[in-house]
Amino acid sequence: MVGMDSHPEEWARYSPRQRMQRFLIYLFCVAAIVWSLTSINVIWEWVYDAPAQMGDLFGRMVPPDTSNLGKILWVLLETVNIATIATAFAVVVSLPVAYIAAQNTTPNIVTLWIGRVILVSSRSVNTIIWALLFVAIFGPGIIAGILAIMFRSIGFIGKLLGEAIEEIDRRPVEALEATGASRFKVILYAIVPQVMPAFWAVSILRWDINLRESTVLGLVGAGGIGLILQSAIDTFNWQEAASVLLSILLLVVLGEVVAMWLRRQII
Amino acid sequence: MSEHPDSWRKPPMIANPFLRYALLLGILAYGIWAFSMLPIDWERVSQGLTRAQRIFSGAFPPSFQRSGLLIDGFLESLRIAILATVGGVLLSIPIAFMAAKNLAPLPIYLLGRGIIIVARSFHPVIVAIIFVKAVGFGPLAGVLTLIVYSVGFVAKMLAERIEEIDWGQVEALRATGAGYLATLIYAVFPQIMPRQIGLSIYQLDSNLRASAVVGIVGAGGIGSTLANAFGRYDYDFALAITLVIVGAILLSEAISGQIRKRIW
Fold it and tell me: What CATH number does the domain located at A69-266 have?
């Protein structure tokens, strides 16, 4: 915008430099897609065949077989219990972790890093991978499932709770410290009331997620409804698989409704 | 004097004492019941410590000897994630339009919401075993699974964004006599584009993470490599794979976070 020359006759939305940048980004995206498409190990006949195969599969699923419904619902209840117990334990364990992983409450730099390492390692390993490990250790069964969900949840709850602690108002803490309150009382009366809403929100959110995750634990042998689904699929009993899938859908939708209701009640 | 006590107690969270203790009792009863109904084989669990010791002594140090297998598996996961993101994002645009209350008529709105709810409710691993049965083992099942997974998230968020658009621009275009498609392209798309790009990048990151998992049930990628290593008790190789997965997830999370921070 210095002289008259810098006012071009024609209007353009982007400057040449921006256009170049955009072009490079597009080029990069297209190159990535082409690379994936050409090098992926896929038999293309199977791709063309996929819609027919899917149609055939769903055709075999109707009508859903409800003769085993009593057992399915019972195991579904077990699945809910796995999710709930694991969430409860994870919440309890994540409290001290969140406390030492928050910059403003951690005692010293060593504990801060211990807290962060716990959070990162818990969060970046998926529930199913945790389940594989715990099934190898404790044998197939519900304990492995509960531990897997717990270990994954500690990182999630701890991270969000730690962030909530870092955002608290300093003044109540200072006020309590000025009265000579002990460390424990400062936490109880200055920090806890401030993070309470975040605490409930995070716990409910994680419970909702865990409900979903607990439905797949059985596929690696860690208990719950997944076991029944796996055996129905392995025996090509698609009609029973359909009723298991429908009951999972119902459970997840119901869980979401309950979580929404709890959130409105508590927060 | 009695109205001003000397000591102060924190007011309880639930004011009604009856409700408070009933709730506490209820939670306690639920805990006991839930634990007693779970079929737990304590004998097997008690062997856990010695087993854990054996596994961990087998896992350390992690073995990167078969790094060729590791890199192949990882590249396959990356391809699966890229293709699934492209497919899922493309598919989720029409579904998001269907599921936006302000643009779609009621029956189409309900259909769109139904698709989103079904896609969101099933964990990718469940979707993966169904696709593995339908189209066979391998990356194709993984791509299809993650397309469903992407639709569940991207279409939902995008539909919410479409419902929030500034309606004035739509009215302006309609006033000029523009058709339905022209209204979408010139009035709606420019408003949702930034969110759409941010969501796509987030979903790529999310798909990469999920592709490590769906492989465990046979849908290709590094998850298959991991499941094989675990099945053969190659715990040192399994640990190496897990470390690579964790590293890749942290890296992709950082990259996608940086890009999204610049766009939004």
Answer: 1.10.3720.10
- Domains of chain A: which residue ranges? 69-266
pTM passes above 0.90: no
Q: Has residue B232 been placed in a domain?
A: yes
pLDDT digits (tens, 9 = 90+) for B66-82: 778 888 888 888 899 99
Torsion region of A224: left, alpha or beta (phi above 0 gives left; psi -120 to 50 gives alpha): left
Q: Which amino acid is at B88?
A: G
Q: Is residue B235 part of a domain?
A: yes
CB contacts of B31 in chain A (<8 Å) are 85, 88
Domain membership of residue B108 (yes or no) is: yes
Residues of B in contact with A148 (CB under 8 A): none
pLDDT in tens, A102-147: 888 888 888 888 998 889 888 888 888 888 888 888 888 888 899 9
Which residues constitute the domain of residue B151? Answer: 66-263
Residues of B in contact with A47 (CB under 8 A): 135, 140
Tell me, yes or no, if B249 comes closer than 8 A to chain A by beta carbon.
yes
Quote ipTM for the complex: 0.79
Using CA atoms, how far residue B218 sits from A106, A261, B53, B228, in Å, is: 43, 38, 29, 10
- Total domains, chain B: 1
Residue B129 touches chain A, beta carbons under 8 Å: yes
